[in-house]
Design brief:
The complex is a heterotrimer. By secondary structure, chain A is an alpha/beta fold. Helices cover 32% and strands 10% of the residues of chain A. In chain A, strands 1, 2, 3, 4, 5 and 6 form a 6-stranded mixed β-sheet that branches. The radius of gyration of chain A is 19 Å and the shape is globular. Chain B has 11 helices and 11 strands. In chain B, helix 7 packs across helix 9. Classes of the chains: A alpha/beta, B alpha/beta, C alpha/beta.
């Protein structure tokens, strides 16, 4: 059972203030209180006084990495950034460094112990205490690599174990028990809601390509309408492009304005990568991304 | 002369059948956690109790994906027309108003959008007033309210076990008188009192309206303001707000040719000015490659350009963009900042700065 | 009387599998004619999108074939491909796309006989599954995309 603290974000604000004051960083990317109940906004703090805005609690559901990228690009060359990193974002940061998107020295990682977040779709409900589905199976409360560790809603002496009590791949295994036709029907039903707004893609820490395959017109890989199968294929390919890179933070599903449960496929792929290649993303700065490398003895039972 | 009827909730199916016999009927439907406008054949599955619609009303007349024509080696044929006019039941006043606004765009007298017309001709809107506005509703800022009849032919007020149905237009009047014959009941005085209560409570629960008359003039002085950089920093540049917005109407037209053939279709799909590629030109130049330019454009289109072209603000205060934006970007906040005049300073490198970034995540 | 014949697309790597297919041809080894061949430099060049688009545009089955591990002309193309294909296959099967529609094989330049066997097996499996319906484009207005 996750032990919660009464932490109010005090240490976090102190840490940010100090970094800005000592000019260790030119900006800090974090969360600020949202304008509607139980929601948080992304915040880019450039001034010590402004650090008072920073919070960390169960409303902090978005991934901050898209905002980190934007803030760094807009800033002068050589600017270092501080970033408030819960467990999943912390793993994503490690993966950024592994993939050459960031140099370790470019960021000061302020690890904060996360006790899970709520989904914004339920944020409006007064009694919604339930954590987002992704958090219920999370194993990583704290960023595996950090420069500063501050107290958050969870105790830091839990060995970094996340708020998840559910089995990591329970949903995947349950789903797999259904017959194929039913599984297909489920996906069709979910994806019938998709309007191709790409909130999932833009909210995902891993989708940082300058030109996304779905936006290309030459060649036109996919039709841009919201009809199937184009929409289905968009989600399959996005899941494949994030194979071995997805940290299962759930930001994509939380971003979806219509509650499409698109991360189930990502979970299945993560399970495959873990079981087949023994790779869990974002834990080790020296790792090689699973789909960018190989082992001569990789299993090939499926090959004729 | 307007009619007022009482429709018991248990008799809702009769109202829906009356509609289905003459119209293609759309209504709010619960779809695994999202409430969207979908075609319905019976009252079963009609989610009138849902507090809000997650998708826009425009979808009934201007769907996300619309085939304009099929082509085959130089010949073209339009898709089969709809044989019945369209009716929507359970539309909130904000969404209903948006249809009137979109009429101004899609049917300007000389130019009539054919797909819009095919559906819009002889449609019927059974509006549903909002007894419990959401925290994100701000229709009252835009001169509307939770029981605004504009855009509805009939307005329903939920009084618990029944709806009070009032006609708002001649068309609505005719519908209540002729199509909906069975179980016609006059509401009792208690019913009408209850309805009045529901309406005033709803009006009160909306926060005080903020005066937005100053927005358009203020915007004129904010062309080069750092306000847009600040707001755009939060934005993910997805299309959620535009697609869910009742008044947004930008679209793209794509040809989808079957590979290896000369057959295919021309399809119209929603597009969003918030997307980085919206203004990308064939040369590769993109006049709104930076997110701050797109953010400015969105606000100015709705609160300035549309006002100039059509005489009203292209925002109905439904709050869907606030509620469903992945990063909680709040247009109310932006409007307050616009009128606050705190951002009149010109950005330091306003002129001549090229955006360093490109691509879907640009900004 | 008109028995349906599946249409199968085969992405064959230039150095091994394509050559193997060619050998099958010159050796007059009989195999089902349902396969349409696309030559690629390496199995590693095959983007999973090719597989999905093939199913979208009217093919009932897909085969991707490359060099045996260790024999790749580009040293490691087939190794990386092997990982990609494993993930693709897991993803498709999870979603309910019939596993018998998408196949991968290693066929060397000297394995004309094996190529014929692989094609035979794939054709048989796809035939049993019937025309592809999942991921197929063209359902609107009753048009099913025809591959010529």
């Amino acid at each position: 059972m996750m032990q919660r603290t009464a932490e109010s974000g005090q240490q976090l604000r102190e840490a940010a203030r100090k970094l800005l004051k000592d000019k260790k960083v030119g900006l800090v990317v974090g969360y600020a209180k949202g304008t509607t109940p139980r929601r948080a906004k992304p915040a880019v703090v450039k001034d010590e006084k402004d650090a008072d805005r920073l919070i960390f609690d169960e409303t902090c559901g978005i991934s901050l990495l898209p905002h980190l990228r934007k803030a760094l690009r807009a800033a002068a060359a050589g600017t270092k950034a501080g970033i408030v990193a819960k467990g999943c974002d912390g793993r994503a940061l490690v993966q950024y460094i592994v993939e050459g998107q960031l140099k370790r020295d470019d960021v000061v990682i302020i690890g904060v112990s996360c006790a899970g977040v709520v989904s914004p779709r339920h944020a409006g409900e007064k009694d919604a205490q339930e954590l987002d589905e992704a958090c219920r199976r999370c194993r990583y409360s704290v960023a595996p690599v950090y420069d500063v560790l501050v107290d958050g809603p969870a105790r830091t002496d839990t060995g970094g174990h996340g708020p998840g009590t559910a089995e990591e791949y329970a949903a995947v295994e349950e789903f797999e028990k259904r017959p194929a036709a039913e599984r297909w029907a489920w996906f069709e039903r979910e994806l019938a809601k998709c309007i191709r707004c790409y909130a999932c893609r833009n909210a995902c820490p891993m989708c940082y390509c300058d030109e996304c395959f779905v936006d290309q017109t030459n060649p036109l890989w996919l039709g841009k309408s919201a009809e199937r199968p184009d929409t289905t294929i968009f989600h399959i390919v996005r899941a494949l492009h994030t194979a071995g890179r997805c940290v299962d933070c759930g930001a994509c599903e939380r971003a979806c304005p219509l509650g499409v449960r698109l991360s189930l496929l990502n979970q299945r792929i993560a399970k495959e990568v873990k079981e087949r290649f023994g790779y869990t993303v974002g834990l080790n700065l020296d790792a090689k991304p699973a789909l960018a490398t190989y082992d001569e003895d990789d299993r090939q039972e499926f090959i004729l | 002369m307007s009619s007022t009827l009482r429709v018991d909730k248990k008799d809702l199916d009769q109202l829906v059948s009356a509609l289905v016999s003459r119209y293609r009927v759309f209504g709010p439907v619960e779809l695994d956690g999202a409430t969207l406008l979908r075609e319905v054949k019976t009252a079963d599955g009609l989610a009138l109790e849902a507090r809000a619609l997650d998708g826009p009303a425009k979808a009934a007349f201007f769907p996300q994906t619309e085939t304009l024509l099929y082509y085959d080696n130089g010949t073209a044929e339009p898709p089969p027309g709809k044989d019945k006019p369209t009716a929507i039941i359970g539309l909130r006043p904000c969404d209903a108003r948006s249809l009137l606004m979109l009429d101004k765009v899609f049917s300007t007298g000389k130019y009539r959008d054919i797909p819009w017309q095919r559906r819009q001709d002889d449609n019927l809107v059974i509006g549903l007033g909002c007894g419990a506005p959401l925290e994100t509703c701000f229709c009252n800022w835009l001169g509307s309210g939770p029981f605004d009849p504009q855009g509805s032919d009939v307005m329903l007020t939920d009084i618990g076990d029944a709806y009070i149905a009032e006609s708002c237009t001649d068309k609505g009047e005719r519908f209540l008188k002729t199509a909906f014959k069975s179980q016609v009941q006059r509401p009792s005085q208690a019913d009408l009192d209850k309805a009045g209560e529901v309406r005033s409570r709803a009006q009160q629960s909306l926060g005080a309206a903020v005066d937005v008359s100053g927005v358009k003039p203020a915007l004129a002085s904010l062309l080069d303001s750092p306000l847009w950089d600040e707001v755009a920093l939060e934005c993910l540049s997805c299309a959620a707000c535009a697609y869910l917005c009742p008044t947004c109407h930008c679209f793209d037209v794509q040809d989808e040719t079957i590979p290896g053939t000369k057959q295919g279709r021309r399809v119209r799909i929603w597009d969003s000015c918030m997307s980085a590629l919206f203004t990308k030109e064939a040369s590769g130049h993109n006049p709104r490659g930076a997110a701050k330019d797109r953010m400015r454009q969105r606000v100015m289109h709705k609160f300035s350009y549309f006002v100039e072209s059509y005489g009203e603000t292209a925002c109905v205060g439904c709050g869907r963009c606030i509620r469903l934006c992945p990063v909680n970007l709040d247009i109310r906040d932006v409007l307050k900042k616009v009128v606050s005049r705190q951002y009149t300073a010109v950005r330091a490198e306003a002129k001549g700065q090229k955006s360093k970034v490109k691509g879907q995540n640009a900004g | 009387m008109n028995e349906w014949e599946p249409k199968i697309i085969a992405f064959l790597c230039n150095w091994c599998s394509y050559a193997g297919a060619d050998l099958a041809g010159v050796s007059r080894i009989q195999y089902p004619p349902n396969v349409r061949v696309v030559r690629v430099p390496c199995s590693g060049r095959v983007n999973p999108v090719f597989v999905l688009k093939s199913l979208e545009n009217g093919f009932d089955g897909v085969l991707v074939s490359g060099c045996h591990p260790g024999d790749c002309h580009y040293i490691s193309g087939n190794y990386v491909a092997r990982r990609k294909f494993a993930v693709l296959k897991a993803a498709l099967e999870f979603m309910g796309v019939e596993p018998g529609r998408v196949h991968f094989s290693w066929v060397s330049a000297g394995e004309g006989e094996k190529f014929a066997q692989v094609v035979g097996r794939v054709t048989e499996e796809v035939k049993k599954l019937g025309p592809a319906t999942r991921l197929v484009k063209g359902a609107d207005a009753g048009r099913r995309v025809q591959v010529r």
